[in-house]
C-alpha cells in the first residue's frame, strides 16, 4: 500500500519529527513517550540523503552490464523478487537503477504533457528524485467512535510484530484505535520508495509520490500539506489527494511499464486483491460504519475481530483489523476498505477527461469535496 508524506525539508527542520498532527499537548506527549524508542526522524534522513547525493555526484557511475538499461533494470528486479541479490551488491547497483527509472518516468511525463503545476512551460518541476530503500513503518491513530486518521507517526523500519503490539497496546490505552503498518512509499523529497517491491509497483509508486509533490504547489496539494503537518486536519482532503495520486500514479506507471518492460520480464508484479476479499472487506466496512454511527463502539470492535478471524480462515490474513486499519487503507480509491464516494467520482472524472494532464489540471484546483461534485455540473 502506497502512503505519502509530502514534507519539504524546510518544514521538516521546523516541525516535530515524532508526531505528525496537532491536538492536546498531553495526548501528544504521551504518544511521543510510547513511540520514542522506535521513532524515525525524517530530518535526519534528509540530511543523510543530501550527504550521500553530494558524494555520488563525485563518484563515477558503475558500469552497467551489456544488454542496455532495460535488461539491467529487469535483472535487478528479477533478482530482488527471487531474493538472490546480495544486500551489499544491491546497494552498489541501486543508484544506476534509480537513474534509469528517473529518466524513463520523466520521458513518459513529457510525452503526456505533464511538466509542472506552476507555469505553462515545458520544464519538469518538481524534479524527479527518489531513493530505493527499506521504508519506515507507520503508526496510524484513529478515534474509536469514527473511522478517521487523527495521527500518523513514522517509526523505524522492520519493527518486529511483538514490538508493534506493545506500541499499539500502549497507544490504545489512551482511548484510541491504533495500528503499526508497512507502507510502500513516502513523498519526502527525494521520495522514499520500497527497495523490495516489484518493478511495476515501484514505477507506480515513483509516479504516485511525484504526483503528491506536483500537487503540493496547487490549492489541493497545499491543503493536504496543512493536513499532514497538523496545521489544519481534513480527512476529505487527504482522501482526495491519495485517491488522485493513486489513479494518476497507476496510469503513469502503467505507461512506463508497457513502453519499456511489458512482455519481457520475469518480474512478479504486485498481486491485486481477490474479488472475494474485496467484497468481504467492503461488507465489513459497511457494517462497522453502521455500528459506529449508532454509537455501538464495543460491538463494532468485537465484530471486526470476529471478521478478521473469518478472513484468516479463508486465507486472508490481517494482523489487526480496527478503526485505524480502515482509516489508513480507506484513503485509497482502489482499496477494498474504501467506501467514500470521492474515489468513484474521481475515477468517473478521469474517464470523462480528454487526458491525464487535463484531469490533473482540473482536480489540482479543487479545495474540497464540493468542488469535485461541481465538476460534473
Q: Which regions have little confidence, pLDDT < 50, spanning 5+ residues?
A: 1-23, 264-272
Count up the domains.
2
Strand content: 5-15%
Task: Name the structural class.
Answer: mainly alpha
Order of helices and strands: HHHHHEEEHEEEHHHHHHHHH
What's the structural blueprint in terms of helices and strands?
Elements (H helix, E strand, L loop, with lengths): L8 H4 L12 H11 L6 H16 L10 H14 L5 H25 L18 E4 L3 E7 L7 E5 L5 H12 L3 E7 L2 E2 L4 E4 L4 H17 L3 H10 L6 H26 L14 H19 L3 H17 L9 H7 L11 H12 L3 H8 L5 H6 L3
Parallel strand pairs: 1-6
Antiparallel strand pairs: 2-3, 2-4, 5-6
Helix pairs in contact: 4-5, 5-9, 7-8, 7-9, 8-9, 9-13, 10-11
Features of this protein?
2 domains, globular, 3-stranded mixed beta sheet, mainly alpha, single chain, 3-stranded antiparallel beta sheet
What do these coordinates show?
The protein is mostly helical and 377 residues long. It has two domains: 9-260, no CATH class; 275-374, no CATH class. It has helices at 9-12, 25-35, 42-57, 68-81, 87-111, 161-172, 199-215, 219-228, 235-260, 275-293, 297-313, 323-329, 341-352, 356-363, 369-374; strands at 130-133, 137-143, 151-155, 176-182, 185-186, 191-194. The strands form two sheets. The protein has a three-stranded mixed β-sheet with strand order 1-6-5, covered by helices on one side. Strand 2 and strand 3 (151-155) form a beta hairpin. Helix 5 (87-111) packs across helix 9. The radius of gyration is 21 Å and the shape is globular. The two termini are 33 Å apart. The model is unreliable at 1-23 and 264-272 (pLDDT under 50).
Amino acid at each position: 500500500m502506497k502512503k505519502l508524506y509530502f514534507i519539504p525539508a524546510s518544514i521538516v527542520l521546523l516541525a516535530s519529527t515524532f508526531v505528525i498532527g496537532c491536538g492536546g499537548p498531553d495526548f501528544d506527549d504521551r504518544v511521543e513517550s510510547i513511540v520514542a524508542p522506535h521513532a524515525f526522524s525524517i530530518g535526519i534522513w534528509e540530511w543523510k540523503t543530501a550527504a550521500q547525493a553530494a558524494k555520488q555526484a563525485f563518484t563515477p557511475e558503475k558500469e552497467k552490464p551489456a544488454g542496455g538499461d532495460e535488461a539491467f533494470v529487469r535483472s535487478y528486479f528479477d533478482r530482488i523478487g527471487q531474493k538472490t541479490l546480495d544486500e551489499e551488491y544491491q546497494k552498489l547497483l541501486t543508484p544506476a537503477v534509480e537513474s534509469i527509472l528517473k529518466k524513463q518516468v520523466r520521458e513518459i511525463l513529457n510525452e503526456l504533457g505533464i511538466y509542472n503545476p506552476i507555469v505553462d512551460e515545458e520544464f519538469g518541476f518538481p524534479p524527479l528524485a527518489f531513493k530505493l530503500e527499506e521504508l519506515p513503518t507507520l503508526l496510524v491513530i484513529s478515534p474509536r467512535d469514527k473511522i478517521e486518521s487523527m495521527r500518523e507517526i513514522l517509526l523505524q523500519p522492520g519493527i518486529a510484530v511483538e514490538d508493534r503490539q506493545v506500541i499499539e497496546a500502549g497507544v490504545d490505552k489512551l482511548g484510541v484505535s491504533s495500528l503499526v503498518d508497512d507502507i510502500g512509499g513516502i513523498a519526502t523529497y527525494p521520495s522514499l520508495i520500497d527497495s523490495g517491491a516489484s518493478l511495476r509497483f515501484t514505477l507506480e509508486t515513483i509516479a504516485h509520490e511525484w504526483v503528491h509533490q506536483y500537487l503540493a504547489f496547487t490549492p489541493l496539494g497545499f491543503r493536504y500539506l496543512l493536513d499532514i503537518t497538523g496545521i489544519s486536519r481534513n480527512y476529505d482532503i487527504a482522501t482526495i489527494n491519495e485517491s488522485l495520486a493513486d489513479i494518476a500514479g497507476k496510469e503513469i506507471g502503467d505507461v512506463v511499464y508497457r513502453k519499456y518492460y511489458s512482455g519481457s520480464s520475469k518480474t512478479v508484479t504486485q498481486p491485486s486483491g481477490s474479488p472475494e476479499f474485496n467484497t468481504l472487506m467492503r461488507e465489513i466496512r459497511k457494517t462497522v460504519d453502521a455500528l459506529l454511527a449508532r454509537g455501538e463502539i464495543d460491538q463494532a470492535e468485537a465484530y471486526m475481530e470476529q471478521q478478521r478471524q473469518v478472513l484468516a480462515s479463508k486465507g486472508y490474513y490481517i494482523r489487526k483489523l480496527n478503526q485505524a486499519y480502515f482509516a489508513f487503507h480507506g484513503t485509497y480509491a482502489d482499496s477494498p476498505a474504501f467506501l467514500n464516494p470521492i474515489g468513484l467520482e474521481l475515477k468517473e472524472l478521469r474517464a470523462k477527461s480528454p487526458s491525464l494532464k487535463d484531469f490533473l489540471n482540473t482536480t489540482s484546483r479543487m479545495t474540497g469535496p464540493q468542488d469535485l461534485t461541481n465538476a460534473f455540473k
